[in-house]
Write a structure and sequence with these properties.
7-stranded parallel beta sheet, 5-stranded parallel beta sheet
Length: 616
């Protein structure tokens, strides 16, 4: 019986292949059973080799109405040639069975599904490029098309009954270029098309619901139309950098500071009749002119006067604009962050009279053309990172009475940290007479060369002057008590610093990497010094007061230049506060005390023969 079936199949097969075939695609109409024989029977080896060695795609048209899934899968898995396949299942009528396509590792490039098949999984079909969905499939389910790196197109019938596309349906399938969303589809869930960097063509005019980040990172999208019932697009198109125009059909659309995030090439926003928003001089704002939402990146406005009625500017409202050089009539910006951040063309800004709050956190972050700045007359409290990254900003006088935080333990990052971070043109600065602290990273990586710190300052916070490689002249507050972690790290031009008699604490790495600093005298008031507080510096002589509470090996490690420690007390007083760690570095440093000199090696519990010789 088996031989008879093979003989019949061979005759039918040769008859089929006598018919002319298209130049681009070769077709093979065949039943599941005969396909199984072709792929598995030894007697078919020659014909199978002739059929499967061509470079022209082979379209396998399954003729069965009810498919034998097991045999079909066995046949596909036994197929090992390199010929690209197009699998056509349109004749199949049985909708009760689902094929486990995730088990196929072959060369299927394209699949046609029958009208009444309801759903499929395609995981690991790495060469799949195109899918033709069935008319009756009502949803594209979660993970259905995940991990298909070569999938470029999904074709959905015009009369499709598709209703929704679920969350992460295309997870790790970033190559998709085209999908036609049918009128029946009303819902696209969160992150459905996230990261589809090649997706170019999508029509959302009939979609009623769009989930968060549904098209986030689709960097090839250029033109978008949003449906009549979608009233909030916050984060949906985040990072879609090539969108040039976006049309809204919903008159009740609401915008926030994330609505147009990352749309750096946006030229046109089309609003529906009766919208709550309008555009003036390339700036999108609400119809009552109370809130500025966005300055369009490609608008041609160079000078923009904020309307008198405006009381709020959304975060990053100007961050993608490339043309505005001057902004006037700026209102109070209390609790509004990053208002002008990344507006790289900005050169000049003017506030309204009696403004108290010129902005909160990172107001002018990376405004790289802002050269001069005048604080409003009534300034109370700007926020942290206010001028961070303003590389052309130079001389500024901070106003007195800026409502500075109280108490040494208040965490400065909530107030003025990073205030001038990276301001490489800032060379000199007059600080207000009532500033209580120099805050964390306040001048870090700036171009500051000379600074006078007023007597109101009691603390220099962590990394306040870190990486200020041009700082050569600093006058410290006479009331300074604490120098915190890495406050002057890598201040390589600093050759002298006079520590005031009020100083009590110097924390870890405070002068680390100060290669031009050769001598440091700690005042008698200092009670505590941190680990590696002068590591990697050029300090050769260190003067330590006898009132220090504790010294350890870690205070002096990684100090190749340090040759002499002058201690104002006796040897016994030094030994009483010094603690050597067994796994620490054996330090060959001379210690000069009030009564005699000795080498730190004498306090080392374990040292080499060569080091012992130095003690004699």
């Amino acid at each position: 019986m088996k031989k008879k079936s093979a003989f019949i199949f061979t005759i039918v097969f040769f008859l089929i292949n006598l018919l002319p075939l298209a130049a681009e695609t070769e077709a093979l109409k065949i039943s599941t059973k005969d396909f199984y024989i072709l792929c598995t029977e030894k007697s078919m080896e020659g014909r199978r080799q002739d059929l499967f060695e061509s470079d022209i795609p082979l379209r396998i048209i399954i003729t069965d109405k009810i498919i034998d899934s097991e045999k079909f899968m066995d046949a596909i898995k036994s197929y090992t040639s390199k010929r690209p396949l197009i699998l056509d299942l349109q004749n199949v009528e049985d909708s009760t069975r689902r094929l486990a396509f995730e088990s196929i590792y072959g060369n299927i490039k394209e699949i046609y599904f029958p009208e009444n098949y309801l759903g499929y999984n395609f995981d690991k079909m790495k060469k799949l490029e195109k899918i033709h969905l069935s008319r009756k499939q009502k949803e594209i389910s979660r993970y259905q098309f995940q991990s298909l790196p070569n999938l470029r197109e999904i074709i959905i019938p015009e009369n499709s009954e598709l209703e929704k596309i679920e969350w992460l349906a295309f997870n790790w399938t970033s190559g998709l270029e085209k999908i036609n969303i049918p009128p029946s589809c009303k819902s696209i869930e969160s992150q459905t098309f996230k990261g589809m960097k090649n997706l170019k063509d999508v029509d959302l005019s009939n979609v009623d619901s769009l989930g968060k980040e549904a098209f986030s990172g689709c960097i090839s999208l250029e033109h978008v139309t949003v449906g009549k019932k979608v009233n909030d697009i916050g984060g949906i198109f985040n990072g879609c950098t090539n969108i040039m125009d976006i049309t809204f059909l919903c008159p009740d659309i609401k915008f926030n500071d994330k609505s147009f995030s990352g749309m750096i090439n946006l030229e046109t926003i089309n609003l529906p009749e009766g919208s709550n928003y309008f555009i003036q001089d390339g700036v999108l704002m609400d119809k009552d002119k109370r809130t500025i939402v966005l300055a369009l990146p490609k608008c041609k406005t160079e000078t923009f006067r904020i309307p008198d009625t405006v009381i709020k500017i959304n975060s990053n409202a100007f961050s993608t604009n490339t043309s505005i050089k001057k902004i006037t009539n700026v209102p109070d910006l209390q609790n509004q962050n990053q208002v002008f951040s990344n507006l790289k063309s900005l050169e000049e800004i003017e506030y309204r009279n009696n403004v108290s709050y010129p902005g909160k956190n990172y107001t002018f972050l990376n405004c790289t053309n802002l050269k001069t700045f005048k604080f409003p007359k009534g300034t109370i409290s700007p926020g942290k990172g206010f001028f961070s990254g303003c590389t052309r900003l130079d001389n500024i006088i901070l106003p007195d009475g800026m409502n500075y935080p109280e108490g040494l333990e208040s965490w400065p990052d909530e107030y003025y940290s990073n205030f001038f971070y990276g301001c490489t043109s800032l060379k000199n600065l007059t600080l207000p007479a009532d500033i209580p602290e120099i805050y964390s990273f306040m001048f870090s990586k700036s171009g500051i060369e000379k600074i006078f710190i007023p007597d109101s300052v009691t603390v220099i916070r962590s990394s306040a002057f870190a990486e200020c490689d041009k700082l050569s002249d600093i006058s410290l507050s006479s009331n300074l008590k604490i120098i915190k972690l890495e406050a002057f790290k890598n201040c390589t031009s600093l050759s002298k610093i006079d520590l005031p008699p009020s100083l009590t604490v110097i924390e870890n790495g405070a002068f680390k990497g100060c290669t031009n600093l050769t001598c440091l005298e700690l005042p008698e008031s200092v009670k505590q010094i941190g680990n590696e507080f002068i590591a990697g510096s050029g300090i050769e002589t260190l003067i330590i007061p006898k009132g220090i509470k504790k010294l350890t090996t870690d205070n002096f490690i990684n100090c190749p230049s340090l040759k002499l420690i002058q201690f104002t007390g006796t040897v016994e007083e030094f030994k009483s506060v010094y603690e050597y760690f067994q796994d620490g570095e054996a330090l060959d440093i001379k210690v000069s005390c009030k009564d005699r000199d000795f080498n730190l090696l004498e306090l080392t519990k374990f040292y080499t023969v060569e080091e012992l010789k130095k003690l004699n």
